[in-house]
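Prompt: Have a read of the protein record below and flag anything odd:
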Amino acid sequence: MSLPSIRRPQSVSAAREGWHGWDDYAQFYDWESAQTVQRRDVGFWQRLAARIGGPVIELGCGTGRVSLPVARTVEMVVGVDRSSEMLDRARSRLRRSRYGPRVKLVRGDIRALPVLDSGPFRLAMAPYGILQSLLRDRDLRETLCSVAGVLQRGGTFGIDLVPELPTWGEYQRRVSLRARRGSRGGQLTLIESVRQDRDRGITTFDQEFVERKGARRSSHQFSIAFRTLSIRKMRNRLERAGFDIEAVLGDYRGRAWDSRAQAWIILARRR
């Protein structure tokens, strides 16, 4: 029997930056997304991009889960991510698709977006809680100003927030997911712990992915953290950064928002 390979979780101090843990998460991100969010949000971003047109920039594009489908509707999508591990998987996905040439991947920090020949952009996308990985107000402020700097006047900024973070109960080492990893992969299990820092509004997920394939067992441990952001706070921050709120939606089909909505989506227009 092979000895397990173990990645130790980061310390609490190391997790103070929201980008910590995402390189480790990269090899499991698509598997977990397929069990949880699936593709529920993808059609929304495709329809929005088709209506507004390109070029489009995605913040925190990760493995290309959203960027590549959006590229079917516009001629140019630029995906920005800090994680080289995530981008490696995105490049592999692009190579397998006929729409891959329409996507340009850039390694960068969303708090200081690089000046790109593809811009200025008509649409900036921040899917599925990516802005909630910014754990300090300063990080959020810098990101919103950076987005304003790469958007055209009148360009749209779409933001998708995860609403249930503050209601997540704390627990220790709970089996959250279990499924096979592709046709040739082994059995993959996610063992998860949740910690809440209510004063700072930060939820930390300590994750262990355990894969069993035949007699071999491997274990990878890391932590990722997200911050609670309310609609009111986001509206205020966006207006200060030079945006006007165009719509607040409660799901991916365009239903009006209320506090019990399944998704919190903000569409803002750059002044």
Q: What stands out?
A: The two ends are 62 Å apart (CA to CA). The chain has a mean pLDDT of 90. The chain has two domains: 6-32+165-227, 37-161+230-270. The first strand starts at residue 6 and ends at 7.
